[in-house]
Amino acid sequence: MKQLKLVDFVIFLFFLTESLSLPTKPQDVDDFSITQKFIEENVGYITIITFAQYIQKASFEEVEMLAKAMTEYRDQCLTNRTLPQCSKLPNDALLEAICSMEGLPKEHNFSHCCSKVDFERRLCFFLNKKADVGFLPPLPTLDPEVKCQAYKSNSESFLSNYIYEVSRRNPFVFAPTLLTVAVRIEEMIKTCCEEQDKANCFQTKAVPVIQYLKALSSYQKTVCGAFLKFGPQVLKSIYIVTLSQKFPKIEFKELTSLLEDVSSMYSGCCEGDAVHCIHGRSKVMSHICLKQDSISSKIKECCEKQIPERGECIIHSYKDDRPEDLSLREAKFTENKNVCEERNADQHIFMAKFLYEYSRRHQELSTPELLRIANVYDDLLKECCNAENPPDCYSIAESKFNETTEKSLQMVQRECERFQSLGKDGLKY
Ligand SMILES: *[C@@H]1O[C@H](CO)[C@@H](O)[C@H](O)[C@H]1NC(C)=O
Ligand SMILES: *[C@@H]1O[C@H](CO)[C@@H](O)[C@H](O)[C@H]1NC(C)=O
Ligand SMILES: *[C@@H]1O[C@H](CO)[C@@H](O)[C@H](O)[C@H]1NC(C)=O
């Protein structure tokens, strides 16, 4: 994996697209060009990820060929970015290159996508992804000595091949996550190939990396599924919970502005546009790091890291401590007389505020749990705001929330008991 060199980099704005809002603050400009530089240096790997995720049956040779073509394209555009072909959206340029590979569209049956343009084409390629990868052989496992030899003789080709094999089997995992996995795999190889007992080292060190990939893959699939099916509102609700629990200190206004960035990032990542995804994610992370004083005390070290580790580090950082002056109960949603007026003024904002206030006070509850509580509250208010005496009617809200929590606690307990009685072997996944 190529690391970023911060010295003497030039701000190239090739790959700069209208779909991304331009940075305005100096720090953002810095982060933007660092991200840009990262993308430029990793064009090969990014191409491999995108291609292997779109056309999972493509061979490694085909993927390598495209990576080479895209690297040439980058060089061309870095030399002269006023060339007409350099004004394209990066993902469109990539799809164009895929479509113009001789015989390939026919061989892998995606000519119908190439006959479309713009959004229709992107959508067609996206729909071509197959979540069920049963048609691919299991991930090849190499003998440790062979692995070390292969890495030693050509580390770039070895990593390319690894990224290819993982990407085609995980067509929905975000590019930054796959790049992080590649960085970790490389670290593992460097360490283990020096060891006496290589096999044991690989076995031990691979476990957390694979778990990490599996966990993120499943999370990203779920969130993108909800996003693509139900639209940005659901995504925003999920992230109100996640961010408020992680950053209980954050102000509502800051949270709302962060949510806009998160939403834009997901639209790129979920659709498989790696460049948009990397830029989007970087924007979210710079936003968080720039405002860290008012957001969290737990991310200082993460913010000193580089792309893509910085993002992964923040995602996995600990929840910040609940501010001392933040009481556990927030009476304004259950005891205030003008709840219904506030709700009527703007239901979306009202519910967002509720979810924010409840989540930052209840860092121990799960996301689905908090979303359920918000639903319970919303249903209750629908009923109560039409009742004769609304405040009386919604004064039971808190005990309803407790009921919801208890119900899911019982469910979890039942599941755990079932799990214990089945024993470890009963849990297959
Ligand atoms: C860059 O490309 C443009 C458009 O094709 C051309 O007019 C210009 O002469 C090129 N500049 C250089 C330095 O090659
Ligand atoms: C090729 O793709 C088309 C359109 O998705 C589909 O109808 C057809 O069955 C596919 N053919 C093969 C051989 O996979
Ligand atoms: C709800 O649960 C909390 C925490 O267990 C408790 O402090 C509170 O009194 C309960 N409220 C109601 C109305 O049951």
TrEMBL record:
<feature type="signal peptide">
    <location>
        <begin position="1"/>
        <end position="21"/>
    </location>
</feature>
<protein>
    <submittedName>
        <fullName>Afamin</fullName>
    </submittedName>
</protein>
<dbReference type="GO" id="GO:0051180">
    <property type="term" value="P:vitamin transport"/>
</dbReference>
<dbReference type="GO" id="GO:0005737">
    <property type="term" value="C:cytoplasm"/>
</dbReference>
<feature type="domain" description="Albumin">
    <location>
        <begin position="211"/>
        <end position="403"/>
    </location>
</feature>
<keyword id="KW-0325">Glycoprotein</keyword>
<dbReference type="InterPro" id="IPR021177">
    <property type="entry name" value="Serum_albumin/AFP/Afamin"/>
</dbReference>
<dbReference type="InterPro" id="IPR020858">
    <property type="entry name" value="Serum_albumin-like"/>
</dbReference>
<keyword id="KW-1015">Disulfide bond</keyword>
<dbReference type="InterPro" id="IPR014760">
    <property type="entry name" value="Serum_albumin_N"/>
</dbReference>
<dbReference type="Pfam" id="PF00273">
    <property type="entry name" value="Serum_albumin"/>
</dbReference>
<keyword id="KW-0964">Secreted</keyword>
<dbReference type="GO" id="GO:0072562">
    <property type="term" value="C:blood microparticle"/>
</dbReference>
<dbReference type="GO" id="GO:0071693">
    <property type="term" value="P:protein transport within extracellular region"/>
</dbReference>
<dbReference type="InterPro" id="IPR020857">
    <property type="entry name" value="Serum_albumin_CS"/>
</dbReference>
<keyword id="KW-0677">Repeat</keyword>
<feature type="domain" description="Albumin">
    <location>
        <begin position="20"/>
        <end position="210"/>
    </location>
</feature>
<dbReference type="GO" id="GO:0008431">
    <property type="term" value="F:vitamin E binding"/>
</dbReference>
<keyword id="KW-0732">Signal</keyword>
<dbReference type="InterPro" id="IPR000264">
    <property type="entry name" value="ALB/AFP/VDB"/>
</dbReference>
